[in-house]
Amino acid sequence: MRLLVLGGDAAGMTAASHVRRAAPEVEIVVVERGPYTSYSMCGIPFYVGGDVADVDALVVRSPDAHRANGIDVRTRTEAVAIDPAARTVTVRDLTVPGAPEQELGYDALLYAVGAHPTLPQVPGADEYGLPVHVLDEGVTLRRTIEGLRPDAPIVVVGAGYVGMELAEALVVRGFEAVLLDRSPQVMKPLDADMAALVERRLVDFGITVKLGHRLEAVRPLADGLREVVTDLGAFPAELLILAAGARPNVAMAAAAGLRLGESGALRVDPQMRTSVDGIWAAGDCVESVNLVDGSRRNVQLGTHANKQGKVAGMDIAAVLQGRDRGEAAFDGHVGTAITKVCEWEISRTGITEREAVAQGIDHAAVRFEGTAKADYLPDAGTVHVKMLAEAGTGRVLGAQLVGNGQTGKRIDVAATWCQLGVTVQQAQFLDLSYAPPFGGTWDLLQVGARKLAAKLRLTPAL
Amino acid sequence: MRLLVLGGDAAGMTAASHVRRAAPEVEIVVVERGPYTSYSMCGIPFYVGGDVADVDALVVRSPDAHRANGIDVRTRTEAVAIDPAARTVTVRDLTVPGAPEQELGYDALLYAVGAHPTLPQVPGADEYGLPVHVLDEGVTLRRTIEGLRPDAPIVVVGAGYVGMELAEALVVRGFEAVLLDRSPQVMKPLDADMAALVERRLVDFGITVKLGHRLEAVRPLADGLREVVTDLGAFPAELLILAAGARPNVAMAAAAGLRLGESGALRVDPQMRTSVDGIWAAGDCVESVNLVDGSRRNVQLGTHANKQGKVAGMDIAAVLQGRDRGEAAFDGHVGTAITKVCEWEISRTGITEREAVAQGIDHAAVRFEGTAKADYLPDAGTVHVKMLAEAGTGRVLGAQLVGNGQTGKRIDVAATWCQLGVTVQQAQFLDLSYAPPFGGTWDLLQVGARKLAAKLRLTPAL
Q1: Cβ B419–A410 below 8 Å, yes or no?
Q2: Chain A residue closest to B344 (CA)?
Q3: pLDDT in tens, B313-349
């Protein structure tokens, strides 16, 4: 019996490794387009910035290590079509020009091919822009910037996590970084008022931030310079980096008849089964349920890819061994995310006020400023907190934290509340830690819970 | 109608302030032995160490500020006896030697007199030892050490939070600090294996740690030096600081017939009512339910004092206004605590392995090392994690975190799990945040949950 895995990063290799352990009798073949397996995509900006010296440090487990574990990993190999009726996949060896296509049969197929970068469809972008989505692109980008003159202007398109992290790395390296986005705010997963605080920080750090700019063209100038043209102005650049997010890789799946969901990503059940028998999907190419509002969204994060890969692996092993269903279920996400940019920690969970309003969810929101340490200590830090709760029930709907103290990871408390349906009334009474180096006697998230309880006229409001 | 509050710190003043707002018709009198109200007891080591320059910075709200708010605060006044039948309290003005005692009547009485330091009952300790429990003692201590020669030896008795924080402050100030405790470990709220890591850190930082030493006497030597004598040796000291914890102040309450609980502190119901009609109690002098094991414990922490004071205030206002009961309930604690010592962050929640064993709770414990950031980043930090879960159910019973990364506050996630009865099976699936500056794709607490699920043979174990 054979498990065929398409895509050799977090989701695919987690599943493959699980099946390897749980079902030693199953042959496992992994087809991966790039040269790497199981690497940290989120680590790329740190490699480009130089915090991580050696690219191999980002590789958790190499193809050879997986092979030694009994998994037949075929790198630089591309899957081009799936035939669910015949249970075969057509693959192509990318290292041999004109190599003939090959059919690989499967008993179980895991579709874990991730996402591909959203590239601007404007003249010159293809030719002059460097995408930075997979690890070999990160290697190319670093080599490229190391060849530039020290204070060269570089334009980064995309003011999301990766774009901001790259712009920061460029400023630290002495380049002139221009961050462009057509959105009116940085970091769309934040509400605009919170994003404005982040934007101000980027500017203070030395990044030129240009929002609401639509890219129109990239043109060559003299001396290797390019001109990045937007509807609101043009910027000279020695390099254009494309970091405008990524879309789930679903074309091959859709062609094979797999059902797509409302988000445009693959629809799967809690065992990561697709709509087609014998085919599972996991990672950046699937959608999952947002447990706060019930919507289905495509969330591209390594944490989900790991969990989903494991759940898929358990279900695949069960099915290949003749059992009905795997013992684990991936029920969904609450949209937790975190980043550290320009020395600030930024995190969020649940839904935003913008989303609550758009969906007509009756709610209250509060925004306030606190300190990361007791306010009488030196360098107490400033933290901007925003929290939302549902009217009537008091259920915590979301939280956003932005500030210069070490408070980012505190979002996990709110994430737990969002995922378990904890109310602000309950949250007030939780026994959260206190000591002066970590804040006031009332934890910041509990201050938010109290304010929300009062604003929603819920009882008790401490 | 009159509310009489005994004790003007967190619990007492929180209750008084609430009643002031909720029941403007009630006269409120607060009797406080010291000169301060509403101050941060936990801030004292930072004031002694010099991080906080001015003692007033530790005072959240002064007696005058409370008076301006319509609360009759009588500082330097001591309550000496309660007559529950007559609903009176006998008080004494400490500022006038030989002042006559006075009777104060009440309709509601809140007993919030905190705890008093545990002083070693050995010859010389009284005469030569400086306790550091209330703010004026902190002021005295700082003045005293500022009069010592720069590298003077100082002995601190008590290797709990305050003792360790003080010893650190002394080393930073250039003194030779000796930390003594009769216990075989520092920080009794940790398991011995975790405490050993903390002890090693204290030693590396320059503190002389002497555990398992029973204090026997303090004797004067020449030149203002004292000799601190234990069963295992003697230590010269220019100063002896007593920080061996504190016991709930219950003598006056017990004399008035209020019921004490199994912990030796006052027994109260979820509205903070004592066993005697018309008398409430809150803060360091009461016990509350440990929600993990059901035991009743005396936990002396500002967070609880604030919450309990608020709950008591709500119930008192309700009763004085003819309603049956206040709308809030303090159901208990899970023993969450945190400190930062010698640049390390140390936190804990729930019960320890030692306690689980002693109580015969069928459980599994895991201990492992992780990093505070992704392991490929520079200065990733080391975090030692210990976690416990109940056999059969998988309910999280406790967690301990010790390390040099910024991970202390992550204990609040485990605290939420402990308080809400979350299982390790559930915990694995929570959407906790991930980015390289904050750890690996699997959050440390989820690594613990996975290990525990596997060890307890629970399903699923991711």
Answers
A1: no
A2: A437
A3: 999 999 999 999 999 999 999 999 999 999 999 999 9
Res. B160 pLDDT band, cuts 50 70 90: very high
CA distance A371 to A336: 22
For residue range A71-107, what is the model confidence (pLDDT) as tens digits?
Answer: 999 999 999 999 999 999 999 999 999 899 999 999 9
Nearest CB to B442 within list A306, A349, A407: A306
CB atoms within 10 A of CB A392: 10
Cβ(B210)–Cβ(B235) below 8 Å: yes
Q: Is residue B133's pLDDT more than 90?
A: no
Query: Quick one: tokens of A244?
Result: 């405008």
Residue of B nearest to A438 (CA): B409
A60 Cα to chain B: minimum distance (Å): 10
Q: Across the interface, do A432 and B374 touch by the CB < 8 Å criterion?
A: no
**The predicted structure's pLDDT at residue B197:** 98
Cβ–Cβ below 8 Å for A430 and B415: yes
Please, what is the Cα angle at A132 between A127 and A136, to 5 degrees? 95
pLDDT tens digits for range B42-89: 999 999 999 999 999 999 999 999 999 999 999 999 999 999 999 999
Q: Which of A51, A329, A415 lies closest to B430 in CB terms?
A: A415
Q: Taking CB atoms and an 8 Å cutoff, what residues of chain A touch B10?
A: 441
Q: Decide: residue B118, CB within 10 A, 0-12 exposed, 13-18 middle, 19+ buried.
A: middle
Q: How many Å apart are CA B246 and CA B132, to the nearest integer?
A: 10
Answer whether A410 sits within 8 Å of B408, measured CB to CB. Answer: no
Q: Considering only CA atoms, which of A409, A407, A335, A399 is closest in space to residue A367?
A: A399
Residues 371-400 of B with CB under 8 A from A: 374, 376-378
CA distance B374 to B451: 19
Q: Which B residues, 78 through 117, put their C-beta within 8 Å of a C-beta on chain A? A: none
Tens digit of each residue's pLDDT (9 = 90 or more) over B195-230: 999 999 999 999 999 999 999 999 999 888 999 999
Of A410, A418, A431, the CB nearest to B333: A431
**How many residues are given for chain B?**
462
Bridge partner list, A279: A109
What was the pLDDT predicted at B114?
97
Residues 6+ apart with CB under 8 A from A189: A335, A337, A348, A352
**B-contacting residues of A 21-40, CB under 8 Å?**
40
pTM, rounded to two decimals? 0.97
Closest CA to B342 of B290, B385, B297, B404: B404
Q: What DSSP element (H or E) covers A419?
A: helix A411-420
Q: What is the ipTM of this complex?
A: 0.97
Could A327 and B459 be called an inter-chain contact, meaning their C-beta atoms sit closer than 8 Å? Answer: yes
Tell me the nearest-neighbour CA distance from B188 into chain A, angstroms: 17
CB–CB contact B431 A438 (8 Å): no
Q: What is the mean pLDDT of residues A63-71?
A: 97
Q: Would you name the residues of B annotated as active-site residues?
A: 42
**For chain A, what's the residue count?**
462
Q: What is the pLDDT of residue A133?
A: 87
**Which among A337, A377, A409 has the least Cβ separation from residue B46?**
A377
* Residue type present at position A44: I
B309 vs A contacts (CB less than 8 Å):
none
CB neighbours of A87 closer than 8 A, spacing ≥ 6? Answer: A105, A106, A107, A109, A278
The reported pLDDT for the residue numbered B150 is 87
The beta-strand segments (E) located in A106-225 are 108-111, 115-117, 129-131, 153-157, 176-181, 208-211, 215-220
Question: Smallest Cα–Cα separation from A373: which of A438, A434, A443?
Answer: A438
Residue type, B27: E
Min Cα–Cα distance to chain A from B337, Å: 5
